[in-house]
Structure formats: structure tokens, C-alpha cells
Amino acid sequence: MISSTVFSPVSSQCSSEQSRWSTSTDGHTNAPTSDSTLAMSVGIFKSTILPSFALHSSFSVAAYALSRATDRGEIKDYVWPLSQVANAWWSAVGEPMYLNNLTFSSALNAIPWTEKVLLSCVTAWGSRLFYRIVSRSLARGRDDPRYEELKAKDPGFWNSALLKSYLPEAAFLTLITLPFTLPFRMSWSSVSFDAETSGMLRALGVGLFTAGFAMEALADAQLELHRKERDDLCRHGVWSIVRHPNYLGDALVHLSFVVLNAANTFNPLVLLGPVANYVFLRFVGGDALNEASQEERYRMQDPHKYAQLLAWRREKNSFWPGLSELANPWTWAVVASGLVGVVVEEMVRSSLGQ
């Protein structure tokens, strides 16, 4: 069963957080009564979007300063997962502690189970990706080839990079993080479900997250192992499903955040999160940029890899698997990973009496 409730968030960030913790005399959380769409939009902008953009912009400016000082454009990539995890924890725990004078444990215990699962998923995803990016960067010992190409093509790269690259990514991140910032900053959902439906949505969200997380982690691990053994393109394992399984896994992870969101407090605005993430992955800084860089380098430096890349394009989709991948055992390995995640979450929830 679905019920609709239009809420009117308060006009300031402080009072919005206070409403999350306040209760009426009968023990229920005080519900906003205004149905003004304008008031809702202004409230969300002030309580969530503006603070998120300020946080991500701060990270981006710091990354730009460090990148320019070291001539390493890839430092911007460190910020991508790090700022998302920081925003999630500040929204869920840090800000309530600050505004309501709570201890860390009190703020954490006040979070409903589904939102704890959401926060845990964001933390696991972001921490793994941050470690992967930093460790790969340190092992390489120089800037990412993509940024080296950009700097070689544009002598004034650093003079325009802040406005052309760093701050635009902060804007993308502001939208991408909506599914795991807005639920911690709003006290009422605009769409709510009964307990049975919420449980099914939570299971679906956990399954999507675990499948996407496994695909992303397997893609990175298999690629690293392949590079140690051979010098051609990696086309086995999850790389036999699509040409960019790491980006597909990332997209599934961010889609899972919306589904988990719907299981507790859902506002349709959070749908902008996976959409913005998909647009960025496909058309801004993901598979399109990566493959264009590969094509140029391989054509000039490695004819064998270039021929492999052209053949691979004919055989496999870039992002979304074709129907033929239903016969690929690695597809079902990823699906099985998702099912394992659902079982584990249910066991943990039951053991904790949630």
C-alpha cells in the first residue's frame, strides 16, 4: 500500500534538524501541515542542496589547490568518493550532534535501521573506491594518463581547471548525494509504504547494492591481476559482460541508494541522484572519456591493443549488458552476490532485533 503525504519543511537548516528530533505530546513526530510546493522546494534547497554544494565545493577547491601544487590532476578523483562519504556522515550524524548537543552514539542510535543500512552501504562503497584510487595512484607514481593528455593538449590547463572541471564535479556530487543526504535532513516522506512493502524494498536495495559492489570490486581486482600477468586488454571475468563493468557496478550501487531510500523516507527528488551519476559516468568523466583516452593511446603506442579494442567494441556493449549475457556465468555470479547480500542483511537485522 502506498500513501501520499506532501510535507512542508521548515525554512532553515537548523529548524529542519530540530524537527527530526522533536515529538508531540502523544509521542509522535510533529508533522508539517503546509502543502505548499514552493515551501517544500525552498526548504530542501536550504537544508540539503546548499549545504551539500558548500561541502563538495570546499573539497573541490582543496583538491584543486593540491593538484596544481603537485601537478597531479588525479587528486580530484580522490575527492569523488571521499566527499560523498563525508556528506553522508555529516548529514546523518555530525549535524544532529552539532545542532542538538548529542553524543555520537545517541545520534547514531536515533537513525532507523533502513537508514543505518543506507549509511553503511555508502561508507563501504566510498571507502573501497577511495582506497582503490589512492593505492593505484601511489603504485603508478605519476599522474593518470587521462590528465597527462589533457595537460599536454592545453598549456593553460590549470588556469581553467577549477571552473571547467573541479567545481562542475561539485555540482554533480550535490545531486548524486541526494539519496543519502535528504533522508537524514527531512522528517517526513512524500511517499510512504506499508511495512511489508518497505521490507521488500529494503531487500531489493540491499541486493542491488551488493551486486553492484561485487561487480565493481571484481572488475578492479580482475583488471589488476590481469595487468600483472599479461599486457593485452582484460576481457575475461566480469569484463566479459560489458566493456566497463566497474561503471555498471557503480550505477547499480547508486540506484540501490534510491531503493533503500524508498524503504523508509522517500522524496521523488532523490531520483536525481542516480540520474546525475549515470550522466556523469556515461557522458562526462566515465566510460566515454576513458575509452577515448584508450583509443588515442593504443592507436599511437600499442597497435595490438588498439585492434583488440576495436574488436571488443563490436562484440560487447559499453555499459548495459546485451541479452546474450544471460548465458554468461559471470552475470549470474554477480546476481548471486546480490542474493547473498540480502541473506546476510536479514540475518544481521534479525540478530539485532531490528
From TrEMBL:
Protein name (Swiss-Prot/TrEMBL): DUF1295 domain protein
Pfam families hit by this protein: DUF1295
Known InterPro entries for this protein?
UstE-like
- PANTHER family hit by this protein: 3-OXO-5-ALPHA-STEROID 4-DEHYDROGENASE (PTHR32251), 3-OXO-5-ALPHA-STEROID 4-DEHYDROGENASE (DUF1295) (PTHR32251:SF15)
A GO CC term? membrane
